[in-house]
Design a protein that fits this description.
Blueprint lengths: L1 E7 L7 H13 L5 E7 L11 H4 L3 E2 L5 E2 L2 H8 L9 E3 H13 L10 H20 L3 E6 L9 H14 L4 E8 L2 E2 L4 E2 L2 H12 L6 E6 L5 H11 L6 E5 L8 H7 L2 H8 L10 H11 L3 E9 L9 H13 L2 E9 H7 L1 H5 L4 E4 L8 H14 L3 E4 L1 H13 L7 E2 L9 E5 L14 E9 L4 H6 L3 E8 L1 E3 L4 H6 L3 E5 L6 E5 L6 E4 L14 H14 L5
Parallel strand pairs: 1-6, 1-7, 2-5, 2-6, 7-10, 10-11, 12-13, 12-14, 14-15, 15-23, 16-17
Antiparallel strand pairs: 3-4, 8-9, 17-20, 18-19, 18-21, 21-22, 22-23
Helix pairs in contact: 1-3, 1-9, 4-5, 5-6, 12-19, 13-15, 15-16
The structure holds glutamine.
Length: 537
């Protein structure tokens, strides 16, 4: 088994996760079985309790693990299946170590960062190897070199690499080479210092991936090579991509990173065949059609809060050879100005998941506008609850209908807390989480889109459609197109007379990939395109 450790230097948000994922794409296309994992140095047990302002999206896996959004990149860029083994936080490490200590497992020893914490970290690399039987394990260390809290992880991978030997492990360091306008130059000093920091703790990177806005010329590469003690051909340029993050694998391939990795790790594999990936990029860069989609949320100013939703929309575009312009609309603006002003120029409306009351009325107005004007609507989790509340108020005339999450005393609690949730008091990891089966109703648009009877989709919520209202909704042609196999929970709804009005209690966006666009997103973009009458370019 071979191991690649990805670290990051100089600044955060360099796209380390993307780089790791893109390397995964290339290695997979060389016929290797790849597993990707992320180590996060923060003390939260998982990101599930963090605000989107702190952390961006919480990415949910099949097994219900609430994880870092980089795991979303891993799943989108490769075919590897992830579980809670693939994301480890300091919080989890300390939780395990402290539990072991209380159980007397350390036999009277003083419990220390080295070796007890570091062993626990190394153990996770090993367990993932045993579990996945991968040829290559790519482990990304979150944070930036120099962070105090990252040190145990770096020490752990240093020891690990020493143990397995240099032909079995390599260090890839993602660094930043800034362009200083006043000097008109790219500067290498921050990279030198970040590599020096790594070498101080005994890690000598084998490959340096240099993130930059301008091309790295030969001279700069030589300088970085010399000062950082990395071979010239292992100084890699990773410029900002022009159009799409899906260009990153091709960019790394042009720089021969996969070749370099395989040579160093003695992996005898053919050149990757990236033809299908090139076709995906072609459809993103030069699509036959174009369409504009409005996403109505409350964290629209944050790039990462709805990451998987934005990506899944793009995948739906790829499936339709349709470029998608995403208009990020603040639900509170809609609340203030009315829906018409913000939605008249979009061909589809999407309301993503969310928690808390802020912006709810704006989302309800957006759902109403879409329903009444025949604008394609896709609701995800909270987006389904919003569709339900809107329908109750404006079609069934149930005044003040609401979700008990936002109005505990509403006269018409059309959305109410799941039974299993009523006794829950702890916050972390206690929602209805992970992949669960959903039975589709024969003859519905949803079933036609999926082309299946039973599907498995990922959840993260506490509230649900209130079954006391099912009959009343059904009579008004509000169709339940997906239910749990025991029929107890509503999972998908649709309005059959509308050109496209579908909403799900789960999060389909977590299972969409550029090479396997999710059927609900494919259908949504097709309907939006049909509405916008976009002419071929
Ligand atoms: N707040 C809603 C619930 O808990 C929706 C959650 C979500 O959109 N992920 O049910």
């Amino acid at each position: 088994m071979k191991y690649i450790f990805v670290t990051g230097g100089v600044v955060s948000s360099l796209g380390k996760g993307l780089t790791a994922a893109a390397l995964g794409t290339l290695l997979e296309n060389r016929g290797l079985k790849v597993a990707l994992q992320k180590f996060d140095p923060y003390l939260n047990v998982d990101p599930g309790t963090m605000s989107p302002y702190q952390h961006g999206e919480v990415y949910v896996l099949d097994d219900g693990a609430e994880t870092d959004l980089d795991l979303g990149h891993y799943e989108r860029f490769t075919n590897c299946k992830l579980s809670r083994l693939n994301n480890l936080t300091s919080g989890q490490v300390y939780q395990t170590v402290l539990n072991n200590e209380r159980e007397g497992k350390y036999l009277g020893k003083t419990v220390q960062v080295i070796p007890h914490v570091t062993n626990e970290i190394q153990n996770r690399i090993q367990v993932l190897g045993e579990y996945t039987k991968a040829d290559v394990i790519i482990t990304e260390i979150g944070g930036t070199t120099g962070d105090i809290e990252g040190l145990p992880f770096l020490e752990a991978i240093r020891e690990f690499a020493l143990e397995v030997g240099p032909q079995n492990a390599l260090f890839l360091h993602v660094t930043y080479v800034p362009f200083i306008k006043a000097a008109g130059e790219l500067k290498t000093k921050p990279t030198q210092q970040s590599v020096a920091k790594l070498r101080e703790i005994g890690i000598a990177p084998n490959i340096l991936v240099c993130r930059c806005e301008r091309p790295l010329d030969k001279e700069l590469r030589q300088k970085i090579s010399l000062f950082c003690n990395v071979p010239y051909e292992a100084v890699i340029e990773e410029k900002d991509v022009d159009h799409s993050i899906y260009e990153v694998p091709l960019m790394l391939q042009r720089e021969r990173v996969d070749e370099l990795v395989c040579r160093q790790l003695h992996l005898d594999t053919p050149q990757p065949n990236m033809a299908h990936w090139q076709e995906i990029i072609r459809k993103i860069i030069a699509p036959q059609h174009r369409v504009r989609i409005g996403v109505v949320g409350k964290y629209v100013e944050l790039q990462d809060a709805y990451k998987s939703v934005y990506e899944a929309i793009i995948h739906g575009g790829v499936a339709n050879d349709c470029g998608v312009e995403i208009e990020k609309l603040d639900a509170e603006d809609i609340e203030r100005d009315g829906a018409e002003k913000h939605l008249k120029s979009v061909a589809g409306v999407l309301v993503p998941g969310g928690f808390g009351e802020r912006g709810i009325e704006g989302k309800i107005m957006a759902a109403r506008y879409a329903r009444e004007n025949g604008v394609p609507y896709l609701g995800l989790c909270l987006g389904m609850q919003i569709a339900t509340i809107e329908f109750a108020r404006n079609v069934l005339k149930l005044a003040h209908a609401h979700s008990t999450e936002f109005a505990p005393d509403t006269p018409h609690p059309v959305i109410a807390m799941l039974d299993e949730q009523t006794r829950v008091t702890r916050k972390g990891g206690t929602m209805r989480l992970g992949a669960q089966p959903c039975q589709l109703t024969v003859g519905t648009r949803t079933a036609r889109l999926y082309g299946a009877f039973v599907v498995k989709e990922r959840h993260r919520h506490r509230y649900e459609f209130n079954n006391a209202y099912r009959e009343q909704f059904a009579q008004a042609e509000f169709v339940f197109s997906g239910l749990t196999p025991d029929s107890k929970l509503v999972e998908i709804i649709e309005l059959p007379k509308h050109p496209f009005y579908i909403a799900s209690q789960f999060h389909p966006e977590f299972q969409s990939k550029p090479h396997q666009p999710h059927p609900l997103f494919t259908g949504f973009i097709a309907a939006a395109h049909a509405r916008s009458h976009a002419k071929p370019l």
